[in-house]
Amino acid sequence: MENFSLILAIVVVTALAFDFTNGFHDTANAMATTISTGALKPKVAVAMSAVLNLVGAFLSVEVANTISKGLVDETGIRPEVIFAALVGAILWNLLTWLVGLPSSSSHALMGGLIGATIASAGMGAVHGDALVTKVLIPAIAAPIVAGVAAMLATRLSYSLGKKADGKAAAKGYRTGQIASAGLVSLAHGTNDAQKTMGIITLALVAGGVVAPDSDPPTWVILSAGLAIALGTYLGGWRIIRTMGKGLTDLQPQQGFAAQTSAATVILASSHLGFSLSTTHSVSGSVMGAGLGRKGGVVRWSTATRMFVAWGLTLPAAALVGALAESVTDLGDWGTAVVAVFLVASSAAIWKISRREVVDASNVNHTDEPAGVVTTAIAAVTPPPTGTVTETLTATIPAPPATTEPAAPPAAV
């Protein structure tokens, strides 16, 4: 550990700060639907998610190895490059949290790493095949697969539950939703916590502390798991509100289907080493569950803003990472300038967020408009059975009364 320099220590601390933002940014992925349907109280939900995130961090290192060994050429990376990458990822996480948009922390991290690496070592230092096969393709496929699975599971749940007792079925679905939410939290730990493990391991390789191609040391796994668990416990209430109430209104059957579908996709990708966005998976499953219920709708105005944020995540974080790398390349004073900018920007974003506080007490309250598609569907929905007569009576006035014509006088 004698090679553990000051810049390397700064990188490790910054990486754990990113992991903390990842935790509260992505709490919604595991617990938004559980909170919105009332299956768990908000604070109980985030505490449960925090514990399971920590447990999940110890279950696998496949995703960590994808970040530390597969995405960029680790032999040509300096610790300053990784620091610049983390700056881009943290600032994007905080900005999207401020506006309540569930963007991908994973893609923010990888975008920052790619931008900083290109600025430092050129395009050749980025492994394009790994970027396409293990990042970009899963980013597109995950929400589609999770969405279709959740839609089909929702329809199956309603179909099988037609003859079930209403109260008993609702209780059963709430219990299943709690279990599936726990599974999503566990899956989140196996996927997202590992990204920080991978970035710290990459920094240790760049600083000469560990040998190339090494797995994450135990202290890295533990610290990353604790950081993401702490962030999860504090709760990203703004994004929980958007995910739980802003996209669609969920019933327990839909919440159970959405969580189960997302957990299956995330765990499968972790096993294969895909650096998957849990945000994309859960968002896709929530929209699929919304469309799976008869009469259910999705607020496409919110979904559109979310899609735009997804598309901007990689390039925006890459741009900030590249700019930060250009400044750190000027020397130690350049690194200090970037560090001060990061702290000042983070403090400013937090101060702005205090103007409208979202916490456990008001997380389920939203004024999000229904949107054009939802309004149109509601306008053409037929009236309920038994109200047709009353509706017609109220809207179509009866014809005016007419008097019978007088009989003609008798002929003389």
Automatic annotation (TrEMBL):
It is a multi-pass membrane protein. Its main location: membrane. GO terms for molecular function: phosphate transmembrane transporter activity. The keyword Transport applies. Keywords: Membrane, Phosphate transport, Transmembrane, Transmembrane helix, Transport. The keyword Membrane applies. InterPro entries: Phos_transporter (IPR001204). GO terms for cellular component: membrane. This is Phosphate transporter. It comes from Streptomyces canus.
